[in-house]
Amino acid sequence: MTWAPLRIIHCVRSPIGGIFRHICDLAAAQSDAGHAVGIVFDSSTGGRFDLARLDSLSDKLTLGIGRFPMRRHLGIQDAKAAGALYRHVRNINPDILHGHGAKGGAYARTIGTLLRMKGRNVTRVYTPHGGSLHYDPHRLEGYVYHRLERILERMSDAIVFVSDYEAAAYQSKVGTPNIAYRVVYNGLRPEEFSPLGDVEDAADFVFVGMLRDLKGPDLFIEGLYNTKLKTGRTPTARIFGEGPDEARYRALVETYGLSDKVTFMGASPARTAMAAGRTLVVPSRAEAMPYIVLEAVAAERPLIATRVGGIPEIFGKHARRLIDPGNVAQLTAAMVAALDNPARMADEARTLRKCLSETYTVDLMHDRITSLYRTVRGEQAADPLAPGNMASIRQAEAARPAYVGSGQKE
């Protein structure tokens, strides 16, 4: 007995960062498993690096790549974009419409519902990736977005959360889902579970991520300046990434007199970027389940990170090493300590790697998400002895429980 292949469309607004890596990895794994897969996303955003990654997957995306204007915030233009996107998806006739992020999730679930009204058997799945869950529920913007999430849940068949933190945030800000839901960690490829050495001229510190305040590049730069004041030595640093606030961060570097020590490198593969600095700094103000932290731990990179989102879940019993988000004093102290004792940082990185669960793999991520599609659609389970089917899913379930809409563990 084998699974019948599915027709799967992934929808996201901005093709950049960890959310897009998640989609590309998932789409590639689903294609390798025999499914027909396509991706739709915004036509006005996306960096060269991420779009090049997508180009490398073009042969696997048999349902194609669609680009449509998708604004970040709600507006009247959404209606026109939704119409064009609806016609594109309708003609593909997917079995699964999987929306990622707040805007991608809104488009996917709305269009999926319209197709259901037309008699199509479309399963509507949503993964927040943080998104609207980062907003303060006590502020007007957060209140509006969280109420919209509750409304959109009625047009959903399942939700996939990438961390226990994200699931808890949804329950506290939106409410306990009344539909099937499951926690599925982001996954790494096998080659990413190998130690990574430094490049010959590695900087003291490296930042890798989107250049926007949510990820904390401004805090990183301020920490460098404070480290200079405390030690009398200006540390060297490299900043990898693209984003809307790059010009402001460049100006901040110049204001602090760090221009000769800090280099903006643009976007680059994570392992290449991490090797360019002796210690990776992740000063995020908010996260869901950041790939860069998983990648750093798997590669045994010395790491300074904040206690946000799913990062404590990665660190496990070593979560005490994390610093408070937005606390520049703690960040500076950690950076000074890293300069003073690199041997201890390397030892902590090796210890942390030993605690990283082997369930953080692309194969298990794919198996658990695709098996959720099947469950929601009411399809019959495959032969458990069939390669790549239920055996690996059972291993994942034994390692950590998933959650369903009733609040009970599977």
UniProtKB/TrEMBL annotation:
<feature type="domain" description="Glycosyltransferase subfamily 4-like N-terminal">
    <location>
        <begin position="17"/>
        <end position="187"/>
    </location>
</feature>
<feature type="domain" description="Glycosyl transferase family 1">
    <location>
        <begin position="191"/>
        <end position="344"/>
    </location>
</feature>
<dbReference type="Pfam" id="PF13579">
    <property type="entry name" value="Glyco_trans_4_4"/>
</dbReference>
<dbReference type="GO" id="GO:0016757">
    <property type="term" value="F:glycosyltransferase activity"/>
</dbReference>
<keyword id="KW-0808">Transferase</keyword>
<protein>
    <submittedName>
        <fullName>Transferase</fullName>
    </submittedName>
</protein>
<dbReference type="InterPro" id="IPR001296">
    <property type="entry name" value="Glyco_trans_1"/>
</dbReference>
<dbReference type="Pfam" id="PF00534">
    <property type="entry name" value="Glycos_transf_1"/>
</dbReference>
<dbReference type="InterPro" id="IPR028098">
    <property type="entry name" value="Glyco_trans_4-like_N"/>
</dbReference>
